[in-house]
Task: inverse folding
DNA sequence: TTGCTTATGTGTGAACGTTA
DNA sequence: TAACGTTCACACATAAGCAA
């Protein structure tokens, strides 16, 4: 098969070929027709017939053109060293018209190759269609996804707006809290704790269980702070250094911000005073603390007191009575009248003390009538 | 049951402001 | 300036609650 060449080299044989050969191109197909039977069926009409009519007009030229075309197709499609070509060539080896036969065989092979290529193209086309449809589906999906994206963007924008609103409200609340700290100061009640007012109530923590718990928490914390501030509870509160007091107040305000509401830390002060007073009292009673001689008279007074005298929470009653008295005093014109009233109250008190020892502690100017409703509870 | 803590009432003296 | 009233601080007494 080394002699196998492209058909261009042998074109001259065709051009110089005798007319018998040229004319017998079709009749001489006896052998070829047998060989080419399957392909001739494919070319029953169309290109086969056209070539035949062209050959009748100028067979040599047509053959030359055909050879060129086929040769170009062979260059593109046929492997000259393939086994199929080898076997075909051997069959026609000694035939005079071998080149023509070979040309047709090559032509048929080229057609076959074209058909195969067409089939491959069709397969590729189908694959391309599939890809196109897939791409179209992707585009459709992208289009369908757009509304979701828009919705998401809207939700994000709404979220951002809400966040801004929350932040603004928080700022507003913080400002309000600061204002509350400044504006809602509770002044110290008149009198002394336990005698004229109740610390817990005046602190506004006498409402419910939670208030009570908060009050107790603050109170216990103040006790701890008293020791942590190295305050000498064996001495009267008045003798406590101002620096130690201020330090204690500052820490107390930090631990319990509610204490800021009470002017000049009166609540803190009252709690600590009450604590160290009771602690000293306990020490005197137990004997591990010596009472100053200046307070001996209190012991004497206590001995004179009637132990059967009833005790109870009278602060509120006395306070309300005082308010009523002040209102009455405001109505009264002239100081003489007020003085007269005071004297009368004292006289009433003296009367009460002489009549009923149990009311001897009613020091705040309570008349007996005004006090009856209270004592009725005992 | 006991001991401690808390809350409240008591009387007194001192300091302070107001008034005659 | 003295008298008076108010407020404050102090200790004592006691009831009630709570925990060991």
Result:
């Amino acid at each position: 098969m080394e002699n196998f060449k492209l058909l261009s080299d042998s074109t001259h044989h065709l051009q110089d070929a005798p007319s018998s050969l040229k004319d017998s191109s079709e009749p001489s197909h006896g052998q070829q027709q047998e060989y080419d039977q399957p392909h001739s069926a494919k070319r029953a009409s169309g290109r086969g017939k056209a070539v035949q009519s062209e050959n009748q007009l100028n067979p040599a030229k047509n053959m030359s053109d055909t050879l060129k075309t086929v040769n170009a197709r062979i260059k593109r499609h046929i492997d000259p060293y393939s086994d199929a070509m080898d076997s075909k060539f051997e069959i026609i080896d000694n035939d005079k018209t071998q080149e023509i036969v070979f040309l047709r065989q090559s032509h048929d092979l080229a057609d076959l190759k074209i058909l195969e290529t067409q089939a491959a193209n069709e397969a590729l086309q189908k694959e391309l269609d599939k890809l196109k449809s897939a791409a179209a589906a992707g585009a459709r999906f992208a289009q369908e996804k757009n509304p979701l994206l828009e919705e998401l963007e809207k939700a994000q924008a709404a979220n951002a707006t809400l966040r801004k609103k929350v932040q603004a409200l928080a700022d507003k609340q913080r400002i309000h809290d600061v204002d509350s700290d400044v504006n809602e100061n509770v002044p110290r009640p008149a009198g002394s704790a336990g005698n004229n007012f109740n610390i817990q109530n005046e602190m506004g923590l006498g409402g419910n269980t939670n208030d009570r718990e908060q009050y107790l928490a603050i109170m216990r914390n103040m006790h701890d702070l008293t020791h942590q501030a190295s305050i000498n509870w064996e001495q009267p509160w008045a003798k406590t250094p101002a620096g130690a007091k201020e330090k204690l107040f500052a820490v107390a305000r930090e631990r319990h911000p509610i204490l800021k509401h009470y002017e000049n830390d009166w609540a803190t002060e009252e709690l600590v005073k009450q604590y160290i007073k009771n602690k000293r009292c306990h020490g005197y009673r137990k004997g591990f603390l010596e009472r100053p001689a200046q307070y001996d008279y209190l012991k004497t007074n206590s001995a004179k007191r009637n132990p059967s005298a009833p005790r109870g929470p009278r602060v509120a009653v006395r306070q309300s009575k005082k308010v009523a008295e002040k209102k009455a005093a405001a109505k009264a014109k002239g100081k003489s009248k007020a003085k007269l009233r005071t004297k009368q109250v004292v006289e009433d008190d003296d009367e009460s003390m002489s009549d009923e020892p149990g009311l001897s502690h009613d020091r705040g100017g309570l008349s007996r009538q005004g006090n009856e409703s209270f004592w009725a509870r005992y």
